[in-house]
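re: ur question from earlier - yeah i can do the single chain one, its not a big deal. heres the input i used so u can compare w yours
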Amino acid sequence: MYHLALKMLFGDRAKYAMLLGGLTFSALLMTQQNGVFQGLLSWTTSNLRNMRASIWVVERTVEQVNETKAMRDTDVNRVRSVTGVDYAVPLFQSVLKARTAGGADKPILLVGLHGATLKGRPPQMLEGDLEQLRLPNRVVIDELATKRLSSGLGRPLRVGDNFEINDREARVVGICRTERQFFGYPYVFTTYDQALQYAPRQRKMLSIILAEPKPGLSAEHVGRMIERETGLKAFTVPEFSAATLDFIWKNTGIPASFMTTIILGFVVGIAIAGQTFYSFVLENLRHLGALKAMGAGNGLLARMLLLQAFTVGLLGYGIGIGLTAAFGWIATSFGGGAFPFVFKPAAMILTGGAVIVICLFSALLGIRRVATLDAAIVFRG
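and the output i got, formated as tokens:
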């Protein structure tokens, strides 16, 4: 009987193609939009991975990692004096204008590292020597900066080239690889003292203090001690990441926009699959009535309809996931890192659950109609 149910499903090619297409589109839309959304969220916390430290100490009103509020230089020594802190170093971070060889002004994210330790250094160097940052007017740029700051050269910026930051020379001594920043600014690394020379002078210039706990102590415990003794805000990496994501959810329209599209994919799946499967059942009522007249009970017929619904649902889900994976591979491999996409297993599980709900809803519409079916319909004209 189950074999007969599958023959009925595959035999109606038009309805089968419509069901498969609707479920495929629904699975693709839900997973693809989730992947882009997760990619954007990963960009919001990229600073934590591009400038690595166990504890991030910031001004007490800072809410997320992309926000900086200046502190006093003396706050570094206050943090260093806290019991449990192994060491603490200053970090400068600000968006400035860089002038290319062609005279164009481009925004950059200037990061000033502690000159002695270079704490907060980029995660991966591709060319050049990071140690040369200690020389005057030296910078390390990321791959995005080689393209953005190449105006007037006719080629990507490379080691040995110059550009200007606030009318001061910046000579490239290295190229690094970083994760894309949420606002799309290229990273330019230099030393803290040199960054203060590039940036317009203000009364307070310190952006962030990077700290590490002493061996045997947890970052969370030391962070709470820093807060108690200095009045500043101390985040561990998981805490800062969670605070940033919470800020994005509460203060931007990004989550609502993507959630609307994902929900729309679910609704489209229900509408197309439900209507098409119900139409498929109506067209096969005479066959189902014949089976009922021959002794097939409502339970058996219901299982046949469930098998049909879940068969096409599984195929549509698999094709949709495959298309999403192909989209992600193309976007990340050939997009040069300019397209956000993160495909997590949780997205596949949630989409699978949504497809199951769609299939159940579609099958229940048919089951309800078959349950009230009069077997004598097969004998009527």
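The mean pLDDT is 88. not sure if urs matches, ping me
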